[in-house]
Amino acid sequence: MIPSNAPIIEVDKLNFYYGDKQALAGITMRAMPNIITALIGPSGCGKSTFLRIFNRMNDLIPGTRVEGKVVYEGMDLYAPEVDPVEIRRRVGMVFQKPNPFPKSIYNNVAYGPRLSGLKDRHALDDLVERSLKSAALWDEVKDMLNKSALGLSGGQQQRLCIARALATQPDVILFDEPTSALDPIATGFIEELLLELKKKYTVLIVTHNMQQAARVSDETAFFYLGQLIEMGPTEEMFTRPLNPQTERYITGRFG
Amino acid sequence: MINRHSLTVRKLREQVAFGLLRLAMALVLGSLGGILLFVFIQGAGAISWTFLTDVPRDSMTKGGIFPAIVGTFYLTVGALLVALPLGVAAAVYLSEYAREGRLLRLVRLGINNLAGVPSVVFGLFGLALFVVAFKMGVSLAAGSLTLGLLILPTIIGASEEAMRAVPDTYREASYGLGGSRWQTIWRVVLPAAFPGILTGSILSIGRAAGETAPIMFTAATFYTLHLPKSPFAEVMALPYHVYVLATAGTHIEQTRPLQYGTVMVLITLVLSLCLVAIVVRTRLRKKKLW
User: A9-250 adopts what CATH topology?
Assistant: First the structure.
């Protein structure tokens, strides 16, 4: 078991290319377990690309290239013998726009475990219930598990997507602007949920919303034009940033 | 200042345009209605329980068309059994695996050209390949294979379009949960594309059931007492039966009502098969699973 003062993720001199275009340059950082790390920065700064390094989702785009080391729980993520499919079961992802499958609520949550071969009905029932409870959705849907997921509201759908990601029992969950498509009340729900989730999981969240980063995260990393400008405890980043660029972004001089 | 003259002119133009569109619609529906009415008037008299369940008697002037109904049903189902797996598999390849390039363009060209081949050419091809070279003889099997090839481009086209229409966000979600490409296709893309594939099947049912030329040389015989006992038996078929009665029958005047009755049965059979598929699709849609 990893002791809790060792990083769960370490990145060393990471470069990332979309074909010839370099999107990330020389990123070196680490993420600690059981905290929320926020990735902030203006549009196009590479924070979403960076997030997707950790579950190898960028591999799906042809022509992408990774240089440098990305270590997750002591394992080099981009070593040739590593299976991206396995990684994605341990590093889950929640996307910006809720994207439940056109299936029932139950089958949405059970999708991940079924991929791994879990067939036993009782085990699945149990896992579905626990995941929906962890995503604070169980009470609202427990009597309609067979209804289509598309009938839920936006906020409920996003919580369903969180439950779905939790069902594969990951260690790390990546959130890519999870509330940007939601109304303020649903956003508040999810932010509370994140604070609960960090007790059991490690959370990395990309957010456009600086106030959200300030509200929920323990550490914040500021990206600009593909580079990591500064990273530190959230309170310090927002009150006493070391880098002038960070300060300009935080105070809204540019964005 | 509002120019009231131009408002009136605009409204008038709108009325004229919609009127023309309604006229076009009326022509289309009218043609369909006219055909159905014509067939009904000429053939309704021949419909009876005997007609539907009996074999032809007395040089087809009496009796029924039951063997032809069965034959057409088997041929249509057989064609779908051939074309659906092949067509959907091809569509999966084209939509999910193939990369843009010269080979892909050639494949698409081939499929599109296949769609344009006249049906009699399919018949001759089926004769040369299935009946003679594969030694199937004139049979249900040869006819189904030939019809299957005929409807293949339609199935491929509709299935591929249905799969391309499945939003990438679903695929992304599946990959994010640790799904492989095949698992994503099998568990997410194909189920979501199912209504579109069903639509392609509906369109194909009509063609497969109603085409005469492909089955003339490969499956159909104009008279058999027996229902097909094996896929390698000859069958009677409704469109071919109509052809025979209309042109080569020995008592054309007497068989005319039966001819139109046969047409009615064919149309009804096709409409029923389509209706079943449409009902299935509607009920699946209603469950909001799509």
Answer: Rossmann fold (3.40.50)
Parent domain of B38: 4-45
Is the same domain home to B109 and B90? yes
What six digits make up the tokens of B284? 């699946």
Q: pLDDT per residue over B96-145, tens digit each?
A: 888 888 988 999 899 989 989 999 999 999 999 998 999 888 888 899 99
- For chain A, the structural domain boundaries read 9-250
**Beta carbons of B173 and A92 less than 8 Å apart:** no
Q: Quote the ipTM score.
A: 0.92
- Give the E-state strand segments of B56-115 in sequence order: 56-57, 62-63
Domains in chain B: how many in total? 2
Measured between CA atoms, the residue of chain B closest to residue A112 is B177
Q: What is the CATH number of the domain that holds B143?
A: 1.10.3720.10
Single-letter amino acid, residue A154:
G
pTM, full prediction: 0.84
SS3 A2: coil
Give the gap in angstroms from C-alpha A157 to the nearest C-alpha of chain B: 13
H/E element, B155 = helix B140-164
Q: Which residues of A are less than 8 Å from B170 in CB distance?
A: 99, 101-102
**3-state percent helix, strand, coil for chain A, nearest multiple of 5:** 35, 25, 35
pLDDT of residue B231: 81
pLDDT at A2 over 70: no
- pLDDT, mean of residues B164-175: 95
